[in-house]
Specification:
The structure holds 2 protein chains of 2 kinds. Chain A is α+β, with helices and mostly antiparallel strands. Chain A has 2 domains: 2-46 and 251-377, no CATH class; 75-229, no CATH class. In chain A, 53% of the residues lie in helices and 18% in strands. Chain A contains 12 helices and 10 strands. In chain A, strands 2-3-8-5-7-6 form a 6-stranded mixed barrel. In chain A, helix 1 (2-13) crosses helix 10 and helix 10 (296-332) runs antiparallel to helix 11. The longest helix of chain A is centred in the C-terminal third of the chain and has 37 residues, at 296-332. The model of chain A has no long low-confidence stretch (mean pLDDT 89). By secondary structure, chain B is an alpha/beta fold. Chain B has one domain (36-58, 77-228): 3-Layer(aba) Sandwich (Rossmann fold). Chain B is built from 6 helices and 10 strands, in the order βββαββαβαααβαβββ. Chain B has helices at 48-55, 78-88, 104-114, 119-132, 148-161, 178-192; strands at residues 4-15, 22-33, 37-41, 63-68, 71-72, 89-92, 166-170, 198-203, 214-219, 222-228. Chain B has a 6-stranded mixed β-sheet, sandwiched between helices. In chain B, helix 3 (104-114) crosses helix 4 (119-132) and helix 5 (148-161) runs parallel beside helix 6. The model of chain B has no long low-confidence stretch (mean pLDDT 88). The chains are: A alpha+beta, B alpha/beta. Chains A and B meet through helix 1, helix 9, helix 10 and helix 12 of A and helix 1, helix 2 and helix 3 of B.
């Protein structure tokens, strides 16, 4: 069988023009599919940036919250009530909200302010410069050094700004796992300073962060929080909820899905048509092989091998091209959100398999119909 | 006592249905023997190619039998029939049907590869067959770089590579000039035909009749006469 596969391989790759056209079609389709879906994956990850960066096991929130940025304040008693639930190891408040800061040059800049629990500083970022205890200093803020950092005029330690007529001082520069989605710099401070600096409605707690005593306690905590009229989610569930919101309740998911499907259709039409033409041009030769003594099964194997080989080679090239362009784009555009995940690759692989299957189906059908007698008749 | 290579009995084959139905073979019976170069000649549309196709196991007759080594080949399953063609029949097609993207040696090696011979061994064997047909120095070239006569010889080398008992040649001189056609058929008779092989040739070309052992004449789907070739 190896000889037959080698024969199929040589018939395919020695037709350089067709093989190149096939590879270009599939590579381009894979590149587009992975580029689209990885961009979407990157956007979704950024949409959950705060959840990832804080890293709490469970999040308690108002049940109407759709995304981490869309907070609905909860009354203070919720924190005490959650702390009283059996199975809760500890629970701390978190403030998350938007604000405008006035920079040294008088310009205003939107920022995200994260207020960490004053006692534990749970969810504090990794500091590149400065000491975490300085966050307790007067007017202290820590700025995150991410692609949005230059929008605050790249402040160093000691840099000052205004926030609602309050003076703010940078006491630390941090980095975080994931940058945010909305293109604004992030400032960390203590929970109470955040409340003090930013005007708030009556209820002020954005989230209660919970650490259960054991994973087995999660279900019970959820039940009890529900009884309070609120929602408790694990980190993954909260990220899924945010993803679902962007996928299904904004146009983002549908638009990217349409573009991915279009990439698939482009790949399918280019590759399918080229492969079908390749089979048609070799139809007489396949008929001659049939006359010589090749069985239908062997012909099917040859065509499937040719289609699979082309598809997998194109898949590899498409991944390589996408990885290269993503890396180059990130070097030039720090905000570029694309993130190639296992699921992007798996989805593109499934689509490539479908392209190979559809392309070879029509080829196989044609080859099985050719009668060796037609070869004799010319 | 000549040993039959193929025995065909009462072969009938028609094409089309209803008023368009045409009978291409009408109760054709014949025997071809090992060591014989048998020609089937006749005008266009007389049923020569249909007969050749039925005898070689690629076109199923509507009735009648074709026996090779005592077994009716048309009682075999399609896979067994393909296996039969691979092992017992060698084909030289009118248009050669060589693969332009493969080298000459790879073209000749195809039947061996289909017989699961290791690739390198098949190429080595193909080179030997190319030597037999005088084209060893062309082994690495694609067929399109060869002349018509050379391509014909490559097709012959491919046909004999599987060491078949029966060699089928369809209009072997149709694409060649007179001298080349004659030299090819002469070459086949001198170098390819032997006591353990039968060669069936369908042809229009009266210039090569001299090489036939026997000549069967066909007209309107029937065998109408048998002639002995001058060199028989």
């Amino acid at each position: 069988m190896r000889g037959i596969l080698k024969l199929a391989y040589k018939l395919l790759v020695n037709d350089k023009a067709k093989f190149t056209a096939l590879l270009v079609g599939i590579t381009f389709a894979v590149f587009l599919m992975i580029a689209m879906t990885s961009l979407f994956a990157g956007v979704l990850k950024r949409a959950s940036a705060t959840v990832i960066n804080i890293g709490a096991s469970m999040w308690v929130m108002d049940s109407s919250v759709q995304t981490v940025a869309n907070t609905i304040g909860m009354p203070d008693y919720v924190l005490d009530a959650v702390r009283s639930i059996p199975g809760v190891h500890y629970a701390v408040p978190l403030y998350s909200g938007g604000a405008l800061v006035k920079l040294a040059d008088g310009a205003y800049q939107a920022v995200t302010v994260v207020g960490l629990d004053d006692t534990s500083l749970f969810g504090r970022p990794h500091l590149l410069e400065g000491k975490i205890e300085d966050i307790y200093g007067e007017n202290a803020f820590i700025v995150v050094k991410d692609p949005e950092y230059p929008k605050m005029e790249s402040p160093g330690i000691g840099a000052q700004f205004e926030l609602n007529d309050h003076r703010g001082v940078i006491v630390g520069i941090a980095n975080v796992t994931s940058s945010g989605l909305f293109g604004v710099p992030t400032l960390y401070t203590t929970y109470y300073r955040a409340l003090q600096y930013i005007p708030n409605p009556r209820f002020t707690i954005s989230y209660v962060l919970v650490e259960p005593k054991s994973p087995g306690d999660i279900a019970q905590i959820k039940q009890q929080v529900q009884a309070l009229g609120y929602l408790a989610l694990t980190q993954d569930e909260f990220m899924d909820k945010i993803s679902d919101f962007y996928k299904f309740q904004t146009g983002l998911g549908m638009n990217l899905l349409i573009m991915t499907v279009m990439s698939f259709i482009v790949g399918l039409s280019i590759s399918g048509q080229t492969f079908y033409t390749f089979v048609l041009e070799n139809l007489e030769k396949f008929g001659a092989l049939k006359a010589i003594g090749t069985t239908s099964r062997e012909l099917i194997i040859m065509i499937l091998f040719q289609a699979s080989f082309t598809a997998l080679t194109g898949y590899g090239l498409g991944i390589g091209l996408c990885a290269l362009t993503t890396t180059l784009a990130k070097l030039r555009l720090p905000d570029y959100a694309a993130m190639i995940t296992f699921w992007n690759l798996a989805l593109a692989f499934v689509m490539v398999v479908v392209i190979a299957a559809v392309s070879s189906y029509f080829g196989v059908r044609k080859v099985l119909r050719i009668e060796p007698f037609d070869i004799f008749r010319g | 006592m000549p040993v039959p290579a193929i025995t065909a009995s009462a072969l009938v084959k028609w094409f089309g249905e209803g008023e368009a139905r045409t009978t291409a073979l009408k109760e054709v019976s014949l025997e071809a023997y090992l060591g014989e170069m048998l020609y089937i000649v006749g005008p266009s549309g007389s049923g020569k190619t249909t007969l050749l196709s039925v005898l070689s196991g690629i076109l199923r007759p509507d009735s009648g039998t074709v026996s090779v080594e005592g077994a009716n080949i048309w009682s075999l399953s399609s896979d067994k029939l393909a296996d039969f063609r691979l092992h017992k029949i060698g084909f030289v097609f009118q248009d050669y049907h060589l693969f332009p993207r493969l080298t000459t040696a790879e073209n000749v090696a195809i039947p061996l590869i289909l017989k699961r011979t290791d690739w390198n061994d098949a190429i080595a064997a193909a080179n030997k067959y190319l030597e037999i047909v005088g084209l060893k120095n062309r082994a690495g070239l694609p067929p399109v770089k060869l002349s018509g006569g050379e391509q014909q010889r490559v097709a012959i080398a491919r046909a004999i590579a599987s060491q078949p008992d029966i060699l089928i040649m369809d209009e072997p001189t149709a694409s060649l000039d007179g001298d080349t056609g004659q030299s090819i058929v002469k070459f086949v008779k001198q170098n390819i035909l032997n006591d353990k092989r039968c060669i069936l040739i369908v042809t229009h070309d009266s210039r090569i009749y001299e090489f036939a052992t026997r000549i069967l004449k066909m007209e309107d789907g029937r065998l109408t006469g048998v002639e002995k070739g001058s060199s028989a």
